[in-house]
Amino acid sequence: MLLIVGALIVLGSVGGGYVLSHGYLPMLWQPFEMIIICGAALGGFIISNNTHTLVQVMKSIPGLLTGSGMNRSFYLSLLTLQYDLFTKIRKEGVIAIEEDIEEPDQSPIFNAYPDIMKHTTLVEFLCDYMRLISSGNMQAHELESLMDAEIETIQHELEEPSHAVTSVADALPGFGIVAAVLGITITMRDIAAPPEVLGLHIAAALVGTFLGILLSYGFVGPMGIAMKNEAYEKLKAFECIKASLIANMNGLAPQMSVEFGRKMLFSSVRPGFNELEEYIRSPR
Length: 284
Hints:
Layout: H1 2-20, H2 31-48, H3 51-66, H4 72-92, H5 98-102, H6 108-111, H7 114-117, H8 120-135, H9 140-189, H10 195-249, H11 254-262, H12 273-281
Domain MotA/TolQ/ExbB proton channel: 135-230
Membrane topology: Multi-pass membrane protein
InterPro entries: Flag_MotA_CS, Flagellar_motor_stator_MotA, MotA-like, MotA_ExbB_proton_chnl, MotA_N
């Protein structure tokens, strides 16, 4: 939603200011300039990225409209899921969760949190490290080092769409200049035309530079930054799991273990201590 609001503000401000300054709005409609700029940018985008990154960018764009979904309610569920697993370990032993982590789709504990089950990578991350803990062959510091390394890899993957889109944004002003130069070339061909005809050609060429800069700084660049911010939001869920697991592995009670995870979250989505405690104790 914020993507749409921001885009409307950009268009309204630029177009409105132009019209109020007695500009002729239809003059800005230059579809062939748009073909040159957007087509060249798309081609460069495809050349510079692999198939995986292209797919991830396409998947990330709808998320800019809907958000990551990792809000306060999501983290209440994530922390409570971990609390339930830690409680089961404390009561029945670490072997008791083997069926849950081997087939989370069939686990009553995991299925109690459908909003978490939608994030398959996050569930796999949690199950993998619970499996390593249940093996009993790793020390807490060894597990923490391994988790740090994997989180670094996940961060790199999550930021790939942002880097790809930002690169396109950096290139768009240059492609705008390309369109402008081609427009001037056409103008030079008709150099003997009347001044009013030459003026239209030159204006159309200048629109190419304008469009390249507007698309870069008004739309594509901000989209790249938004994708990067969304990647940070997603990464916090993995850091939350890491903190909770290490705390539990060091012998802390389930309630205190998830408190370590809660402290990893951004303040805008972090549940309060009492809020989390009430949620944990509420029937599900």
